[in-house]
Structure to design on (408 residues):
C-alpha cells in the first residue's frame, strides 16, 4: 500500500486520511475523490463540506418514531394522511425509505436504530424498543408490523418485541417471507424455498 | 432509483446530493456514507469537513514541476538529494506518487495536468507543456523521460513534446513497454506481446 510519507502535501494527506475513514473508502479511492475536489470550484467544495457539517449539527430525530427529520416530529408522523392505527417496526432509516418507495404502506413507523445482536454487543436496551412498548400501551395502535431483516438477529428481535407487547392485545404481524419476485426457483436457497412451501397461501 | 422527495430530512437530502456528485459515488452509497457520519462524533465529522475545506483553499502547486504542495516549491524540487539533470514527465499527481513508490527514480518531475485528448477537448495549451519547454531551454536538464499512459493519447502527447524539445539537444527517452511482471503470456494482449517482441533487449 501507499506510504503516507509519499503524499506531496500535508493538506492532501490529511484530507485523504479523513476520507479513507469512511466505510468502503480505501486510501486510493480517497485520493481519487480528494484530487477530484481539487479540480472543482471552491464554491462547490465549500458547499459539500458545509452540507456535511450542517447535517451533523442540525439533524434531529422524530420524538415519536425516531426517524431522521428536521424538526420535532417527522413528516410521516405529522402527516394527516397516514393511518395512525398501524406501526411498522424497522431497523433503520434506509428501511423506512425502502418501504416508502413501494407506496404500499400508509401507516406510521418505528425505527429501532438497530437489531438485537449479542455478537456485536447490541441488546434491547440499546434500541428503541421500550419507546415502542410505550407507544403501544398509550393506545390507538391496532397493528404492529414487524419488518426486520429475515435473519437470526431479526427473528430474535421480532420475538423479543412480540413478548413485550402481546399482552396489550395489539395485532402483531410480520412481513411475508418467500421466494422473491423474478427469482429462479432452482437458485433459491433451501431455507427460503422450504419456508415458502410451508407458508403457502390460497390461490385466487 | 430513489425519489428525492422521499428523504425524511432536507439536511440529509442536501448532504446526500452533494456527496453523490463525487465520481463513482451513487445516491445509495452517498446515503450510506452520510448515515455513517451521523453515527460518528461531531468532532470527527467536523474534522473531515474542515480537512476538505482547508485542502481546497490551502493547496498550492509547485512553480517548477506543478506537483501539489504546501509551499512555493514541492519537496522533490527543493530536495538537495535529487538529480536535477533528469525530468520525468507524468500526467498527474498520482503518477508521481506511483513512481516515487518504486524508489527507482531520483530525478525531478514535470506534471502535465492531463494528456492531449481531442475527444475531451484537451489540447496542448491546456497542459503544462510550454513550461516544460521553458525548463528544458533554461538548461541544466540532460534527459527528459516520457512516462505517460501507453495509450493513443499518451503517444500523441509524447510525440508533441518530443517535437517541441528535440532541437534543444536534450536526450528524450520513454519508459519501457512490454509484458508486465507476473503476467501470463497467453493472456497478454497481442499489441503488448508484439511490442515486447519488437522491443526485445539483450539477455545478460
Amino acid at each position: 500500500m501507499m506510504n503516507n510519507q509519499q503524499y506531496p502535501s500535508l493538506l492532501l494527506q490529511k484530507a485523504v486520511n479523513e476520507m479513507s475513514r469512511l466505510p468502503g473508502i480505501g486510501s486510493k479511492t480517497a485520493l481519487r475523490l480528494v484530487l477530484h475536489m481539487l479540480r472543482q470550484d471552491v464554491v462547490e467544495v465549500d458547499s459539500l463540506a458545509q452540507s456535511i457539517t450542517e447535517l451533523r449539527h442540525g439533524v434531529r430525530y422524530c420524538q415519536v418514531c425516531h426517524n431522521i427529520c428536521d424538526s420535532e416530529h417527522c413528516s410521516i408522523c405529522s402527516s394527516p394522511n397516514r393511518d395512525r392505527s398501524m406501526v411498522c417496526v424497522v431497523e433503520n432509516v434506509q428501511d423506512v425509505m425502502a418501504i416508502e418507495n413501494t407506496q404500499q404502506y400508509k401507516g406510521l413507523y418505528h425505527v429501532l436504530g438497530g437489531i438485537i445482536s449479542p455478537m456485536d454487543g447490541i441488546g434491547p436496551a440499546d434500541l428503541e424498543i421500550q419507546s415502542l412498548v410505550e407507544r403501544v400501551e398509550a393506545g390507538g395502535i391496532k397493528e404492529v408490523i414487524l419488518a426486520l431483516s429475515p435473519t437470526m438477529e431479526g427473528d430474535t428481535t421480532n420475538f423479543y418485541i412480540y413478548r413485550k407487547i402481546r399482552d396489550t392485545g395489539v395485532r402483531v404481524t410480520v412481513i411475508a417471507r418467500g421466494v422473491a419476485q423474478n427469482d429462479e426457483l432452482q437458485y433459491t436457497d433451501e431455507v427460503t424455498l422450504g419456508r415458502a412451501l410451508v407458508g403457502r397461501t390460497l390461490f385466487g
